[in-house]
Design goal:
The structure is a single chain. The protein is α/β, with parallel strands linked by helices. 46% of the residues lie in helices and 14% in strands. It is built from 14 helices and 8 strands. Strands 1, 2, 3, 4, 5, 6, 7 and 8 form an 8-stranded mixed β-sheet that branches. Strand 1, helix 1 and strand 2 form a beta-alpha-beta unit. Helix 1 runs parallel beside helix 2 and helix 2 packs across helix 3.
């Protein structure tokens, strides 16, 4: 018997190469013919994934979206071959669990960034992701998309607040701004404002899906662990955890607000009728990525990316097997236990 049609809006975290996990989740979702993806909000790598998916859905549907997702990650992997952040001999021979580790290259980059900015090291402001995006996406055509909603999150540098670009404003610069790490690249200037990576202010923001879609079910795809098994004791472990905490902080705060609204609604309070009930869902691979340090977010080898993709596919498949019938009916994520 065919499954009942269900609708999801999807929020995608950023996290460099770990975004290939999200690729896998989306790839599996697209196989579900009766699962309609009503909208996406993405930050950094999440913005890249969301852009590929929306453009594919707009042009030819699910299979084209799957094709574009794979094409983007293939091109990103090929481009990384020429990156100075490729693993050194040290990293390749002493990487964790037999996998290439980018710790040495990452630490070297951090050291260099203490003394030199990207404006000195990269005076022309080149960003290899720009050509990859333009090779795949015609942004004029994407702005005409009716198949789904798309929101991309960046951080306004001078004003210190989140900026969400919707479809009518989407451009290659908007997507680049969402993934713009300020120690590596120049700020992206759009309409006189400068932008850095969206993860500083919204990783990802949820409100664009609440305000910008009518979908009552929101799925958050995590790639930054909320919980870890032990308090780090090494300098590297401490730095990794600080990175995870800072890039999760805005999401944790926003989900506290969502939980508060849900409690108000359960008590019968809805001032001005402004609020609506939401079913919240999440996929979080934290138990499988605890051991991946922050430097692995630079690992764009095809083997690593496809391993992450396959992990994402597995998580998505398991979630759908257990929770598909709950979509549109109830939350499968306990907000208090997960975020508060």
């Amino acid at each position: 018997m065919a499954k009942q049609e269900k609708h999801l809006a999807v929020a995608l975290q950023g996290g460099g190469s770990h975004g290939a996990f999200t690729w896998g989740v989306l790839d599996r979702f697209l196989e579900e013919k009766n699962l309609v993806l009503d909208g996406f909000v993405g930050t950094s790598a999440g913005a890249m994934n969301a852009t590929m998916l929306a453009y594919g859905l707009h042009l030819e549907g699910r299979e084209k979206a799957r094709e574009f997702l794979e094409l983007f990650w293939r091109k990103a992997s090929n481009q990384a071959i020429f990156s100075p952040l490729q693993p050194s001999w040290y990293d390749q021979n002493f990487g964790k669990k037999g996998n290439m580790d980018y710790s040495f290259g990452y630490k070297l980059t951090e050291l260099i960034s203490l003394y030199f900015s990207p404006y000195q090291l990269n005076p022309l402001g080149n960003n290899p992701l720009k050509n990859i995006l333009l090779d795949i996406v015609d942004f004029d055509r994407l702005r005409a998309c009716k198949a789904t909603k798309l929101f991309v999150c960046a951080t306004n540098v001078r004003r210190g607040r989140v900026k969400v670009f919707s479809l009518k404003d989407i451009s290659v610069d908007a997507v680049l701004a969402s993934a713009n790490l300020p120690k590596l690249f120049h700020a992206v200037t759009i309409d006189g404002e400068d932008y850095w990576d969206g993860g500083y202010m919204g990783n990802p923001p949820i409100f664009p899906l609440i305000d910008g879609t009518e979908c009552s079910d929101i799925m958050i795809v995590h790639i930054n662990p909320i919980n870890i098994p032990d308090t780090p004791r090494t300098s590297e472990g401490i730095e990794d955890r600080v990175n995870e905490l800072s890039f999760n902080s805005s999401l944790m705060l926003e989900m506290r607000k969502v939980e508060f609204v849900e409690r108000l609604l359960k008590e019968g309070f809805n001032p001005g009728g402004k609020f609506r009930h939401l079913n919240m869902h999440n996929i979080n691979p934290e138990t499988d990525i605890w051991d991946l340090n922050v430097s692995s977010k630079l690992n764009a080898t095809w083997e690593f990316l496809t391993d992450m993709r396959d992990l994402g596919r597995r998580y998505a498949h398991e979630w759908l097997e257990v929770n598909y019938d709950s979509i549109g009916v109830k939350s499968t994520c306990n907000l208090r236990e997960t975020f508060l």
